[in-house]
Amino acid sequence: MSLLQLGVPKGSLQDTTVELFRKAGWKISVSERSYFPTIDDPSIRCSLVRAQEMARYVEDGTLDAGLTGRDWILENDSQIHVVCDLVYSKASFRPTRWVLVVPEDSPVRKPEDLQGKRIATELVNYTKRFFAARNIKVEVEFSWGATEAKAAGGLVDAIVEVTETGSTIRANRLRIVCELFESNPQLIANRQAWQDPWKREKIEQVSILLRGALAAEHKVAIKMNVPQAQLQAVIAMIPSLTAPTVSPLFQTGQLQGVEWYAVESVISEPEVRELIPRLLRQGAVGIIEYPLNKIV
Question: How many C-beta atoms lie closer than 10 Å to residue 186's C-beta?
């Protein structure tokens, strides 16, 4: 049997990735004592790998595919195939920004002002390339953590750090000079694996279902019965991905003297609490709401 070697990101992305795969249709079980999670698909073998190293192992063929951030692909300057973006509203899957940051009272206003200065970051290779491309000579050192504190404490002149809202940066009395790029999780594939028909089909299957699970996030389906006289008014109230599905109920005309219709739609979950009372007032009955795992 052919086998797909799949990298699951260990660390902050791990739990969200496992949950996303569950919604997509795969159950991944992670043990604290093993770096090889089990998955209920005999054609996939999972390995736990740090997101920072994922692109390197996918590039060299140790893994056929994996999930990691765009930032670590850029850091490693990896020659891999990006299958799809995976943007998720949960904290660890939201887009993030890598920014150039200095102390609040620093005279630095643009990257050129850092000529001859020292910068700390976890994204060393990318930062070196960024300044080299602009002919700005700087000293870039690797930061093992607490990067904001190094700038706030005067240990370095600037830092390149990741942020979502900038609140931690402001809390440490730091200031963003400029944004370098935006990062988001991506499904990536080894170029040779992508050329293999079976592996490509399997990776595309994973991509389709993961994106389907993401598309269903914060969406629910609602279903209700509506008398013919109120049908157009109810349909006009319902937001939908395309248009609501409407079908006549069996024998309602003969049994009750009124034609009834089943109306079904997919809508944003926060809209439901406002919509259901309005639908009831408009004559809808038997309203059912149910969660969705995937929209493909």
Answer: 22
Write the DSSP symbol of residue 31.
Answer: -
Q: What is the pTM of this model?
A: 0.84
What is the rounded CA–CA span in Å between residue 236 and residue 240? 10
Write out pLDDT tens, residues 72-118.
999 998 899 999 998 766 655 678 999 999 999 999 999 999 999 99
Residue written as token pair 């209700």: 224
Residue 7: strand, helix, or coil: strand
Residue 111 and residue 161: Cα distance in Å, rounded? 14
Provide the β-strand partners of residue 60.
none
Size of the chain, expressed as the number of residues it contains: 296
CA nearest 177: which of 159, 150, 156? 159
pLDDT at 116: 96
HSE of 69 in the Cβ direction (CA atoms, 13 Å)? 24
* Sequence-distant (≥ 6) Cβ neighbours of residue 227 within 8 angstroms: 258, 259, 260, 261, 283
Residues 6+ apart with CB under 8 A from 60: none
For residues 53 and 188, give the distance between their C-alpha atoms in angstroms, rounded to a whole number: 13
CB atoms within 10 A of CB 86: 21
- Which SS3 state, helix, strand or coil, does residue 88 take? coil
Task: Look up tokens 């013919």; give the residue.
Answer: 228
Q: Where are the alpha helices (DSSP H) in the chain?
A: 14-24, 51-59, 70-76, 124-132, 147-152, 167-171, 191-195, 197-215, 231-237, 252-256, 269-281
